[in-house]
Write a structure and sequence with these properties.
By secondary structure, this protein is mostly helical. It has one domain: Orthogonal Bundle (Endonuclease III, domain 1). About 55% of the residues lie in helices and about 0% in strands. It has ten helices and two strands, in the order αααααααβααβα. It has a two-stranded parallel ribbon. It is globular, with a radius of gyration of 16 Å. The two termini are about 30 Å apart.
């Protein structure tokens, strides 16, 4: 049996997420936006809660197309607040809509959200070497910079801890423990 990171429980959703997604570099604007929304939705909750609701989120938020989400109105907010398949928190829902609008402005300025977001790590994943879960930080200088710039641009639910979790999830940071079988696999993914 392969050794995994200390945070990974035996839940099949967690195992699949850890083994197939977490730490794999993402360069698709829609998927990056999805992960930013989900990380913000997770604030104060467990990641497993969000994983269990992810498919519902994808349906409720039109598969996270930023241009679609940016056009949501009060009626759509009310519909989302009534949807038991997602976290029904008005501030988080409104933040997702606001953040979609911010993503569109960044796409216009930078050509893509991907180019902008990866600039915080100079386009290459940070390869950390952690021996145990207790060494893995919940923030970093890069996540501090990202959080400050996103907030300056009008984003919400993007504190440094959320940004660091986002960076881990989308492969900007390889925070798999060195004893985890995925650490080496992730490290060997070619830089795009």
């Amino acid at each position: 049996m392969s050794q995994r990171c200390g945070w990974c429980t035996a839940d099949p959703l967690y195992l699949r997420y850890h083994d197939e997604e977490w730490g794999v570099p993402v360069h698709d604007d829609q998927r990056l936006f999805e992960m930013l929304v989900l990380e913000g939705a997770q604030a104060g909750l467990s990641w497993l809660t969000i994983l269990k609701k992810r498919e519902n989120y994808r349906k409720a938020f039109d598969r996270f197309g930023p241009a679609v989400v940016a056009r949501y109105d009060d009626g759509k907010v009310d519909a989302l607040l009534a949807d038991p398949g997602i976290v029904r928190n008005r501030k988080k829902i409104e933040a997702a809509i606001r953040n979609a609008r911010c993503v569109l402005r960044i796409q216009e300025e930078w050509g893509s959200f991907d180019k902008f977001i990866w600039s915080f790590v100079d386009g290459e994943p940070i390869q950390n070497i952690w021996a145990s879960l207790t060494e893995v930080p919940s923030r970093s200088p890069a996540s501090d910079r990202m959080a400050a710039e996103l907030k300056r641009r009008g984003f919400q639910f993007v504190g440094t801890t959320i940004c660091h979790a986002f960076m881990q999830a989308v492969g900007m940071v390889n925070d798999h423990e060195i004893s985890c079988f995925r650490h080496r696999q992730i490290r060997e993914i070619p830089v795009v």
